[in-house]
Amino acid sequence: MKRDEVVKFLDGYLNISAYPDKSSNGLQVEGKEEVERVAFAVDATLRTIERAAKGGADMLIVHHGMIWGGIDYVTGIHYKRLKALISSGINLYVAHLPLDAHPEVGNNVGLLGLLGLEPKGPFGEYRGLSVGFWGEFDEPQPMEKVAQIIAEKLNTEVKTYEFGKREVKTVGAVSGEGAFALEEAHRRGIDLLITGEFGHADYLTAQDMEQSVLVAGHYKTETLGVKALMDVLRGRLGLDAIFIDDPTGL
User: Fold this and answer.
1) What is the value of pTM for the model shown?
2) In what side-by-side order are the strands of the sheet with 26-29?
């Protein structure tokens, strides 16, 4: 398939232009005109680029790209990553907030799905747009059970901060650095916030607000979107696709 056809599909399906984002979403680095195999990864690192090239990929689709508003100098690691992409002819396509917020393949729909929850509505407002979703159990569930499900299905260690309810009915999901949604969760009466990262100040804020939080890792919470998008490209465009797993443990 022509590269431009793949990009057009992705731009439209992910509604790339709708999100104000510090990431430069869409086709960040142009490569081969023909695309047969697509690699998917969470991050555009030198490691994932080299593994995509070794795997025969013509395009690499990631959640975290190389350009966050611009590159001042093409030196150091920027040069090495660009050189690896250009020398192998790999197209780099990036979907940051659009992949968090997507109602079908998004990271946050995926997090709720791990718990068997359908999204009830948007959650996690960021720059005027919601990038997460919230859902609701039929009956309150113990935090221990929720944590066990997330840990097993993401194959990761989770941490729970039971500052509020220990049996939760409503759940808000914002993957990655989602602690910005703490106050919204408290204001809206969301029993549990599921996110990827949780810092010192976040801990104190949640504690003061008596807001329960489950932290499952930045990387792991953001594998869901790229994997779901990979299945879409296989099914709708008939492209060969591979997933490159390169966990950080964070």
Assistant:
1) 0.96
2) 26-29, 91-94, 59-64, 37-43, 240-243
